[in-house]
Amino acid sequence: MKLTAEERKMYEGKRGKAAQTAMEILVALGEIYGAKNMVPVSSVQVSGVSYHNLGDAGLEFLEEQAKDGKVRVLTTLNPAGMDLDDWKKLGISDDFAQKQLTVISAFAKMGITVSCTCTPYLVGNLPRFNDHIAWGESSAVTFANSVLGARTNREGGPSALAAALTGKTPAYGLHLDENRQAQLHVQVKAKLNSTSDFSALGWALGKKFGNKIPLMTGIKHATIDELKSLSAALPTYGGPSLFHIKGITPNRTKKPKETATITEDDIKEAYKALNEESDIVDFVAIGCPHASINEIKKIASLLEGRHVKAEFWIATARQTKELADRAGYSKIIEASGAKIACDTCMAVAPLKGRFRVMAIDSAKGCYYARGSNGFKTKFGTLEQCIDAAVTGKWNPK
Ligand code: F3S
Fold this sequence. Notes:
The chain contains 14 helices and 15 strands. By secondary structure, the protein is an alpha/beta fold. It folds into three domains: 5-177, Aconitase, domain 3, CATH 3.30.499; 181-273, no CATH class; 275-391, Aconitase, domain 3, CATH 3.30.499.10. α10 (293-303) links the parallel β11 and β12 (311-316). The relative contact order is 0.13.
């Protein structure tokens, strides 16, 4: 790879040990993927923050990098394994909490903003159209590429951290124009009315068309919350980290010759596949990806004057919770017995064995609830999930 003078200094260790390790990681990656050069990044989102996933080996690597490493661009963090201020309310042990706090202080020492959210674009890490960025977290990557028009590959924890410590990433994959073109024209002939419908669309696209970048037509309207749901489901079920929707997303692409359709039946199939046999629900999780203030407002209006029977978590960024506090939504939600879980989510918190059946409006959430925690899943609209929280039962549509 061709390196600039500054990149070479980092590679040779003249900018410290952490920058050297970081540049070695990036050069190795660039060589594997055939990158000719590095590009400067305007921001980084680091995933792999939960101690539950990192373990002691991951923590050791971070502490080593934190000895002399400092980030060179705005860098935010994915959710951790617990609410950093109030882990006890979520039933997290003190032993786990101590390890998690050590992980967070290593990140903070490197100058990383302790945002702990998978929706960095809602809380101040908002790249511009065409910006090169290096983000981990598949839902945020797909949202940034597709909805914002920024450019990022799907980074792992170490490569995202390496980009943060150097301000660079190798130019390959979705950084290059030629890899951002649509490969399949998908006519969407289904009505999509909710975050769960868009999540089901992501499931169907991934299952039917694999990694082909779709250009979708036929979708007349999509809210930011619906687009973030689609961005989470698509890569989780084998789809690409970039989609185009005619009239909605900003990237320009040629119309591919190959065509396909998504019908009402495909969406129904997603709902069927994500719903398992069970009448009871003992855990409800909303906020995958992290809930926006608009979603929290809606949840508060649906919960007002009601009491929940199931454990109910609303995962969100701490900054979004602060807005909800001011608006009075948190008070309404907490009066119902539901919990606003900041900094974390149901997939990265250590929840195995605590619940049997989880209801959620996110196909990505179903994937992790089953795979990581062994829960059965119920998948439906926000309204259905809230009814399940109140009654402890699942009512099909
Ligand atoms: Fe975010 Fe956790 Fe879902 S990281 S996208 S809430 S699985």
